[in-house]
Amino acid sequence: MSVEPDHTDDREGHRRRLRARFAEAGDSGIPDYELIELLLFRSIPRRDVKTIAKRLLAKFGTFAEVLAAPPQRLQEVEGIGDSVALDLKIVEAAARRLARGAVAKRPVLSSWSSVLDYCRTAMAFSDREQFRLLFLDKRNALIADEVQQSGTVDHTPVYPREVVKRALELSATALILVHNHPSGDPTPSSADIAMTKQIIEVAKPLGISVHDHIIVGRDGHASLKGLRLI
To answer: Would you kindly state where each structural domain of the chain is located, as residue ranges?
Structure first.
């Protein structure tokens, strides 16, 4: 009768070594799959998770895209159940909260790179279009950050008067419009440009400025102001 080898010691040794590397150097030099392993260690305590981490990357592409994937799609990967998918979504929420903290209560226009980082963290890897509004006060500090509309894979309905109405409710004096292109290409469409100009036309007589419209995608971002489209 043969006896299956017990790989528990090897597995625990690998976990100890990887944790020690992270403790010493942080994420410097740690590839995406090992960072995912570190997350899975607590969610899946008694299994080899390297294969699962690599399956996640093979399916979704990058660490960020793994975290941004909907729970039901995460569970399509062998080894990922309800509780593990939830743990990954908690990490995504923490990352988004951290990025938002970098732009809260400070002049947004003087920390533009933080704004772009936050927008990408919040939306770049979503599989549905979202239209987000950053409401600013007279010092250009962030008052509120709201998703006004969610749509399909390639369309989100936007109503300029509703945008401006909400700005008035919050006593905002400026707006930054943000939406994502799930295709990955952030190039503005003619509809994006026309919608932005409509919002500017409705907002301007009420003393509300539109500083920019940022489009984010997996391949980067585009600024309508930077492209001189508004």
So the answer is: 8-97, 107-223
CATH architecture of the domain covering 8-97? Orthogonal Bundle (1.10)
The closest of 159, 137, 136 to 148, measured between CA atoms, is 159
CA distance 185 to 187: 6
Q: Which CATH superfamily is 107-223 part of?
A: Cytidine Deaminase, domain 2 (3.40.140.10)
What number is the average pLDDT over the span 16-24? 88
Residue 91 CA, distance from chain mean position: 11
- State the chain's mean pLDDT as an integer: 87
Q: What is the pLDDT of residues 66-97, one digit of tens each?
A: 998 889 999 999 999 999 999 999 999 998 88
* 30-40 residues labelled b (16+ CB within 10 A) or e (exposed): eebbebbbbbb
**Is 131 within 8 Å of 149 (Cβ atoms)?**
yes
Helices (H), the chain: 8-25, 32-43, 50-60, 63-68, 71-74, 82-101, 112-123, 160-169, 190-203
User: Positive or negative, the Cα torsion across 147, 156, 90, 111?
Assistant: negative
Q: How far apart are CA 74 and CA 60, in angstroms?
A: 9
pTM for this predicted structure: 0.68
